[in-house]
Structures are given as structure tokens and as C-alpha cells.
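User: Some background: our group keeps a shared notebook of sequences we're curious about, and every so often someone picks one and asks for a predicted structure to add to the entry. Today it's my turn. The entry only has the sequence so far, pasted here. Could you supply the structure so I can complete it?
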Amino acid sequence: MARVAPAQRWITSLSRPARVLLASTLIVAALLGAWLTWRSSVANWGVLYTQLDRDDAAALVNKLKELKVPYRVRGEGTAIEVPEEKVHELRLELASAGLPRGGGVGFEAFDRMRLGATEFEQRVMFRRALEGELGRTIGSLGAVQSARVHLVMTERSVFVSRNDPASASVVVRLRPGRHLGPAEVSGIVHMVASSVPSLNASRVALVTTDGEMLHRPRAPGDEEGAEDERGSGGRSLESSLEERTRALLSRLVGEGHVDVRASVEMDHARVERTEDHYDRARTALRSEEQSQEFVTAAGNITVAGVPGAESNIGSAAEPVDPAQADGGVLREQHTRNFEVDHVSERRLTTRGVVKRITVAVVVDGVTRTEGGQTRVVPRDAAELAHLTALVRGAIGANTERGDVVTVESIPFQETLDAPVATASRRAVARPSRTPRGYIIAGVVAAAAVLLGVALLALRRRSPKENPTGIQLAGLPPQEPVPQLDPEVVRESLRAQVHSRVLADPATAALVLRFWLGTDAPDRNAKN
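Assistant: Of course. Here's the predicted structure to add to the notebook entry:
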């Protein structure tokens, strides 16, 4: 009781406002302590998994019930929260159990196959498992949120004419603000075609949940599918040229101060040409033939003798030179065969040859200050020529092919609406708020309040000195100040106002309008 008496006396010595403030502080401190105690007993919830489908969410809930772990379902069944300190441990444990599966049924379905399954059931289960595994693989891409695969696998027949090829359809749900490029589309199509027996990439259809056809299946000779493929190749090249040119010029004129449009004319004709070239300067002698023939005139024919051995053998007389004989004709024939250099060239022009490239570039002007005014003027011709040369080099322009590059400087128009940048969704780690932090903050706040109350109470208990009775030595006593007549003060103020109004009537009029609350334009006051 001896200790309570000083505190009681101190409380009774306080004024009424100080005692009310002290009681309010104690009540607030008690409520804060009770809230901190309740907050420390409540677990902090952390996100275990998000963007789950219904099958995975149901499997996770059943597993958490088996483990007897408290959980909360959020986001219309697509997100599950658990106590924050158990998030990482549960993720490891659920991963060892194969959860979440990522949508669909995978090859784990064969772990629960019953003993008496028929061959048809096994084929159907294999097809479902293959579809689920392909969907999970495609869903692991960064731009894909989820994927679903449908396979058509026909049975093999002993008749070759009845063996129909397999086909596949893939539906992907893209993440907000993301898209699949030509390389990613080609990768998905060839991955699916390589995973299914007797499946060709031309029989794979790829479509988004928005209805956009990314890859169209086509049969041999299908001109519609071929035309789509050709068009996509040209658009891809145009996008590549625009991006390359924009990245180059943005470093020179600044980001957002250049716009590029490219048009590519493709030649999709399939041309096969065969050419033969002969070089007359390069010859070689292959064969040579020379012959002589002498023909005697009919009047110069003489009797050679009687028939018999002597006439056939001939006499020993000297032969007569045919060139010296009278009435004879001598024929000589000389034939030479030469090999001429021959080159045979066969050219096969592939599809998708660039026929012409046209690029149009618009750059913003430059800011200049003249006469105290800032305005945007176009760039000079020398700078535009330099930028044109850079663009031609960046796109590989060919003058013989007829490529055209145009660079113009036109001041851009300022818009009021700022462009909204679509950013990819990223998981941001939030710092964990532990109960210890709440307790420390509450204790510090209560201590500050109590200290303020104590200082206020001590200040009220301290004696106040009255300075009115203190007079400095050496000064004469103060004389009472005479009171002014109110009527005199009013007349003096009226005279001052009248002189101000006469000196500046425009300002006086503005003041009166302001007092009366009228919104008159300034020109009326000046008039």
C-alpha cells in the first residue's frame, strides 16, 4: 500500500484533462496488446500454388487433408494458401507425390492400371497419357499458360492403302501480353510430330484459345495451306526488318522518336532451268581421217592382156604415176573431229526468294530554342542521308533488286494519353511479417504514448512564475496608455481606404468583386 499511495497522490494531483488523457492511453495500450496477442496467434498465410485447374486443385486439397494441414482456397478455386512457414516444405512434399500434375493425365495413369485391362483400354489410356504429357511439356513454355492436345492415332492394317496417317490438334492459352513467335510455333509442331508415330508436321494444327490459327495442317498440293505459310514467312521477315531498323535508330534519335514500316515482296514461284554453254576457244582434236581416190578417163583405158594368170599377176613394167597420167582425176578427203568445251547447268529456284524490299522510316524532329520560344523542326538533309545509308546497310538493301529506303523527318504529335506498357506477370516476393515485428512496434508505440503523458503531467505540476511583477532596474515606471476613441479609429480607417481607392481604382474594383463573389474577366476591370 505504501507504493500505491505515491501513485495515487500523483494521479489526484493531475488536472482533469491529464487524467482523461492518461486513462485513454491505458485503454489504447490494453487494446493494442490484446490485438498483438491475437495477431501472434493467427498464422500468416502464404500462396502455395496459383493458376490451378480444377483437377489439380481437387488433388491438392485431398492431399492437404491427408497431411492435416490447414489451407484456404482463393481465386474461385484456382489458388491455395497454407501457413507461410510451411510453404516450401509442402511444395517439396507435394512434388515428390507428383502434384500438381499440370492438367491432364500423364504416364502415371499406368501406375493404377487394373490387372484385367483389355487391349482397347490400354490403347485409350496410352493415348490419354501421351496427350497429357505433351500438354504439360507445351505448358512449360514461358508464353504458354496451359495447353491441351488431341491425337488421332489410327490402327495399323495389313493393307497399305488403309493405313491412314495420324493427326494432332493443339490448343494453347497464352499468358496476358505474350505471343508465340515463328520459331516457337515451329518447335511446338515438330515436337508433337516427333512424339507420335507416323505423324507428319504438316498434319498438326496449332490454335490459341482466342481462335488465332498459328499453324494450319495441309495435305500435299494444298494451295491454301501453302499460301498461309508463304504469307507468314513474309510477315516474319517484315517484323524482323522493322525491329532491326528501330533498334538501330533508337540509339541515335532516342527511344520513341522513330517509327519503321517494312514491306517485303516475295517470289514463291518454283523455277527449274537447264542451260548448256559451249566455249569455242577451248577445243581439242578427237579424231582425224584422210583418204585419196584417182579416177581414170574412159578413153585412156588400155587392154591389159588376155585373161589368165599372167594378166592377173601383171608384168614387171614400172607403174604409172596417177598424177602424170592423162585423162585421170585425183580426189583427196581430209576429215578432222574436234571436242568443244560444253557446260550443262541446272538451276532450281527455291520458294520464298526476296524479290523487293521497301522500308519507310519516320524520325522525329529536333528541339530548338529561338527567340525564347522552343519548337520542333525537321532534321537537315545531311543527317537524313546519313540515316538512310545506315538503314540500307542494316537491311541489306540491293540496288539491282530495286530495294527502296525512304527516311523522312516529321515532328511527332504529342498525345495526352500515355502509352500503357503491357508487362508480363511476375511473382513478387513479399517480406514476411512475423508476430515479433508486430509486438516490437506495439511496445515502442505504447512507450512513446506513456512518455508523452508523463512529460505532460510533469509540466502541469511545475510551478508557473508570473513575470508581470518583474521590473528592470533603472527604468522609469510604466505610464498607462490612453484608450483611443472608436469613432476616431473608424474615421481614420475610412480616410485611408478612400485615399487608396482614389490612387488605384482598378485594384479596388477587383477587391470588391472578390468580396462580392462575382467572376468578372480582367479586361472588364481594365476598361
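Suggested note for the entry: Residues 271-291+335-349 form one domain. Residues 416-434, 464-472, 520-527 have pLDDT under 50 and may be disordered.
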